Fold this protein.
Amino acid sequence: MQVTKFKEAKRYEAANHFDVSALRLQGAEATKTSTFWCGISHYLPGGKAEKSASDFERVYFVIEGEVTVVTDQGTAVLGAFDSVHIAPKEMRFVENRSNSVATMLVIVSNAKVAP
């Protein structure tokens, strides 16, 4: 068993994220979890993750506040306890368009999609 206490979670820099504070909870450098990693992202008002795609599928689960997720399939405004699956190679843009901090659990697979 590997426990990560929230008060001891380490910050990490998420590429192309602005006004977002991210903490690693499991996987990557935090624990020996090997098939995925997860973290908590705090989006300040106006905070965003620029439009990009990844080889890895991911799930965003909003814990508190509201985030807007934009993909080629459309726009979704997610509130507390809403979630979205982002497929591998799917372009996405994430932004907090509200005046309150939004907190989101991020779960990302480590399994790369075959070309």
